# Entry
Amino acid sequence: MKKIKYIILLLLTYLSVQSQELDTNKFKITLELGGGLSYKTSKDVNLIYNYNNLGFAGMFRIKFVPESRLNIGIETGLIHISTIETGEIITTNNGNTNERIVQNAYPILLDFSMKFDDLQVIAGIGYYYVTIKSNARNPELSFQSSDWSIGYLIGANYKFRISKHFDLLPEIKYYLLTDVQHNLVAFQVNLKYNILKW
# Structure
């Protein structure tokens, strides 16, 4: 995990240095909205319950795009981490009950991306708001909690031009949540809209 953090930090440093190439003549602001699947790659303890580490990943990103290679943006969204379903095997004073525990993350990241023709490499740093929510038929077992985690992002996408204002971006990303020690891979398809140019 430390090697991955160093690689991401080196990429962030490299992308920041490229800001010296900015062309002050033409700029644009873009919005990206996308969705896909996330898969938690980090290992958990062995569970006797039904465990699902595949789920929905959605994102919203706003970017400042100069004519140089360097883009800067802010990204947020929803990332499914895991779901645990116990079935009917928990015994309480009121009898057997089932429980469903869902863990999600909501990132707030500063993104730096570098363009190589239609290919774009992305690195980000920021915070993830991690939530855990339990739904059970027995109120004694229901709970919810939340916490913040420092995290990173590294990824890449490829641009397919649809029209003058819209692009389609298949994107693959690797999320690293350091405080809660979660690693996730996500594949998404994003729609980019060029909202402003000057």
